[in-house]
Amino acid sequence: MPNERRTSAERRADRTFARLKPPRLHDLRLRYQLMILFLLVSLLPSIGLGYLVNWTVSRVLEKQAVEHTLQLIGKVNQTLDSDMESLQNMTYLIGFDESVRAFMNGGEASDDETYRLKQYLQRYTTLYPEIAGLLVVGRNGDYVSNELYARTPANLTEEPWYREALEREGLFTVLGQPSERNLTSHVNYRGDEVVTVVRAVMDPDTEQAIGVVLIDLKLWTVSKAARDIKLGRTGYLTVVDREGGQIYAPEQPYADRLPAGWFEGGETGAVTRTVDGQELQLIYAESAFTGWRTVGVFLTKESVYEVGQIHFYVICFLFFVCLLGLTASLRLSKSISDPIGGLMASMRRAESGDLSVPYTEIRGDEIGMLGHSFNHMLVELRSQIKLVERKERQKREAELRSLQDNIKPHFLYNTLDTIHWMARKKDAGEVSEMVESLSKLFRIGLSKGSDIIPLADEIEHIRSYLVIQQTRYTGRLAVEIEADSRSEPAFVLKLLLQPLVENAIYHGIKARRGPGVIRIRIAAGPGELLLEVADDGAGMEPERLAELRQKLRHPLEALERQSSERERSGRSYGMLNVQARLNLAFGEAYGLKIDSRPGEGTVVTVRHPLLFEPPATGSDEEEKK
């Protein structure tokens, strides 16, 4: 008795402890779980989302600004590269001119020849008004130009630009803005108003430079691509050379010079630098052709104002969402939990085996759709149960009919085997061979009731059939059978090839003039077996081919229609039978494909799954048990 009292006391203590223990969230009713979750989802974002939005929006705007600016810079660089490529092509054209090369080689040029050279160069400056000057210098220092001339009698081959062109050995070189050179022009352009490019002209025989072509490009050609682009409210684009010297900059820039050390992050990128107390965002991209760097410059504070406006609207929206969540959480949780409870009750009844009680509440939301699907499932379950019962009954009846139908073929097979041996005793070789082939047809056709047989048996079956047909069509029928080594151990559906070969004989070879050939090829592919039956017979007209392909898409319906119309012996019955059996056994992914041309023959390809053992059937499993 004391032990019993102690046990009862312990049980009361456990129940008291369970009541005092705080409930976990998933132990609460769904209604209360939804209320808590709605409140958390509504209130917690208002605490953390402000900081998250601030960080995210800033990064997004910065990324968009960088991408947009890089796109603009890319277009500017493309325009500049196009202009420089035109100058490069111009230097090639000038260097290939025979009179120019003769002048560069040091030949004495008369006044008329010099005049013609100037006229020749004048054509380029006329066609390309952006060219400020064009100069051709020979190896001995003689030069000819339309606009440029030397300031002093000093030899131009000693100029730094000439030596740099020689060092590049015929490569087009962009020098940038000229300074302290012994050249001037009639227009007297300043050094910051032009950009100079040079290229040495090489002798192909000696591979030595014979002279240099120099072109001065007007700066407005460079500036026109960048001066009309604005970044934000006050941002701009500028173009600098490899050392950071300005090629183009607008009036009153934020920075007079952008050192090359600021851009060490690669050919493209974005950096932030402080100049004269102002924080600047520098987005840049380097041209691989010219080596110039196009830089987008704008104040970082310009994006802060836009971010602040976005923050204000987001915070107002979050406040409204929280208020709406507090108001709607109770009603929404009730509207979700109640119909779920009703659906659970209907499911419990269905779980117990009662499939006659549907979900009756009519709703248009997901719960109503779930209830409708549940009702549809009940209907389908009842229908499937009846269908399974009917199929099982039909299967038993078909097995019984199959046993009855196999009695006569067994007797006929044994009788033919007896006739075969009697013919051999009487030395009737042809009769013996015919009877033996027919006997094999029946033996393989029976296959002990199995629908899946080895591929070797199927090939033996079709060989036996062809022996009979070749005897009948002596001299008119030739056969070729090829099977690769990978397909030898495969299993296939029984009586797969015979209907196709029969169709090829009676509707292909028989309908043509003279002897014909039937080719049977079997090859194993990745996961499938391809069997091809081709003939060089009469072929089919396009209308007949289209009709047959349409029937092969729905073989069961076509077979039923032929049976009802008493067309069992029709032209396509055997092919439809094979197609239907393949679809029923392995699915619609497998079946027949037919191609044919009138007068050229027909090719039927069978897609069959690659099986290396016969699939287990219900009867096989029962035998194993």
What key phrases describe this protein's structure?
625 residues; alpha+beta; Beta-Lactamase; Heat Shock Protein 90; five-stranded antiparallel β-sheet; 16 helices; disordered C terminus
Describe the protein in words.
This protein is 52% helix and 19% strand. It is α+β, with helices and mostly antiparallel strands. Among the domains are: 97-223, 2-Layer Sandwich (Beta-Lactamase); 360-403; 476-622, Heat Shock Protein 90. Helix 2 (30-96) packs across helix 7, helix 7 (301-351) crosses helix 8 and helix 10 (429-446) runs antiparallel to helix 11. The two termini are 57 Å apart. The model is unreliable at 1-6, 398-411 and 621-625 (pLDDT under 50).
Brief synopsis:
It contains 16 helices and 19 strands. It is an alpha+beta fold and 625 residues long.
Protein topology:
Blueprint: H1 2-20, H2 30-96, H3 98-104, H4 111-127, E1 131-138, E2 143-145, E3 148-150, H5 160-167, E4 173-176, E5 183-185, E6 194-202, E7 209-218, H6 219-223, E8 236-240, E9 246-248, E10 268-275, E11 278-286, E12 293-299, H7 301-351, H8 366-405, H9 407-425, H10 429-446, E13 452-454, H11 455-472, E14 477-483, E15 491-493, H12 498-509, E16 516-525, E17 528-535, H13 542-553, H14 555-564, H15 573-586, E18 591-597, E19 601-609, H16 618-624
Parallel strand pairs: 14-16
Antiparallel strand pairs: 1-2, 1-7, 3-5, 4-6, 6-7, 8-9, 8-12, 10-11, 11-12, 13-15, 16-17, 17-19, 18-19
Helix pairs in contact: 2-7, 7-8, 9-10, 10-11, 12-15, 14-15
